[in-house]
Amino acid sequence: MRTTVLCTTLAVATACQVVDRKKVANVLDTLQAAMDTAALVPPPPPAAPGAALVPPPPPAAPGATRTLTVPGFSTPESVLHDSAQDIYFVSNINGSPTAKDNNGFISRVRPDGAIENLKFIEGGRAGVTLNGPKGLAVAGDTLWVADIDAVRAFNARTGAPLDSFKLDSAGAVFLNDLTIASGAIYITDTGIKFDDVGNVLHPGPDRVFRIGPDRKITVAARGDSLGWPNGITVDPVGKRFIIVSYGPRKAVLGWKPGDKAPKVIAKGAGGFDGVEVAGTQILVSSWTDSTVSAYESGQEVKVITGVPSPADIGYDAKRNRVLIPILTGNRIEIWQLK
Ligand SMILES: [Ca+2]
Ligand SMILES: [Ca+2]
Question: Rounded to the nearest whole angstrom, what is the distance from the C-alpha of residue 274 to the centroid of ligand 2?
Fold first, then answer.
């Protein structure tokens, strides 16, 4: 009996709330209608006789439009277009960038945005070790992956592990991106660590490692002038490497093996991560202002804005698209360049 009374009371209270909400909603609707009909915006003053009618300048044309968003990743760090297979590879750190948790994985994504295989290569399965995979590069049928203090190779068609190089004994701290030139692999070491609450520390040193065709591991470049080197790519136009700094140097750098120090091509917002040469453009992603900008003129030209935590971008030359891993958003965004 008590239960019934309680239920009835509750029912009445709920009904009353519904009525009250309706009343409030009606009042708000009335107010809104009144405001809509009221002339809140004063009419523009009449044009002075003889004044030239100058139209306002059109807004700056955006350099790109977002065509696809693909969710479902786990701390994606890099997207790479394998033009031979016409497929996108996505590296997934899955957890802390420095944790040797053997849960990293590489996805295969079709250019239409369909995830063909989320865990095409996965740490802990089929003899694979993969902790916090970051930069990717492909040469023929071999997919190369930077993984904290190791560089690993996989068959790009089957995912089978092929080879690995340990750089821990060479002192690798935070291997980040890699690129291939003349059969040698060049790998950046950003020299960063994270403290217990996630602050970025930079014990350094900043380096570019080289793994030669003879499997010899050497330090190709070293020093603060690298500015916490993150992305690296080959610039076939300038016949040089382009390296972008994640740290306070905020520099887009040109470098050739043997150079004492890299040359500053341009400075920008900083917090740079990925770099791609797209035709004549040098595209660089920035965590600082959530953009992808072009730097080939020596000046920053914003091409894509509103992309938070844009990590190691890729470029699909077949479709003229920029492929952006939104690291903290667990998605990739595909942008069409004009
Ligand atoms: Ca991991
Ligand atoms: Ca990176």
Answer: 6
Cα 200 to middle of ligand 1, angstroms: 17
Segment (H or E) for 20: helix 2-37
Ligand 1 centre to CA of 265 (Å) is: 34
Distance CA 121, CA 280 (A): 33
Cβ pair 274, 282 in contact under 8 A = no
Q: Classify each residue of 88-127 as buried b or exposed e, where b means 16 or more C-beta atoms within 10 Å of its C-beta.
A: bbbbbbbeebbeeeebbbbbbbebeeebeebbbbbbeeee
Residues 59-115 pLDDT 10s: 444 689 999 999 999 999 999 999 999 999 999 999 999 999 999 999 999 999 999
Q: Whole-model pTM?
A: 0.82
DSSP secondary-structure letter at 122? E
The ligand whose atoms approach the alpha carbon of 311 most closely is 2
Q: Helix, strand, or coil here: 21?
A: helix
* CA–centroid distance, residue 76 to ligand 1 (Å): 10
Q: Residue 70's beta-bridge partner residues?
A: 332
Task: For residue 178, report the distance from its CA to the centre of ligand 1, in Å.
Answer: 18
Question: Ligand 2 centroid to 152 CA: how many Å?
Answer: 16
Q: Which helix (H) or strand (E) holds 324?
A: strand 321-326
pLDDT digits (tens, 9 = 90+) for 161-207: 999 999 999 999 999 999 999 999 999 999 999 998 989 999 999 99
- Looking at all shown ligands, the one closest to residue 93's CA atom is 1
Ligand 1 center to 96 CA (angstroms): 6
What is the predicted pLDDT for the residue at 160? 98
